[in-house]
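Case study 2.
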Amino acid sequence: MPKRITVTSENDNGRNTTFHDNFKNKDMTRSQFVKEIKQGNYDNYHVRKINGVETPVSNPDKSENNNLD
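Prediction:
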């Protein structure tokens, strides 16, 4: 089974900036993905504030299939 979310680009500091939902064939910016997570549309992900920026992260579990990389 393919990963649900793939990071498609990051900035020079390594922050993930765009994402692709492989199940819905949908591209999202970081802020769009954060909004979708907050609306409860992505159960295996949550939002952390990192250096003052809301950042999508995968929930810790034993599965590598939902890790963002």
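DSSP finds one helix and five strands in the chain.
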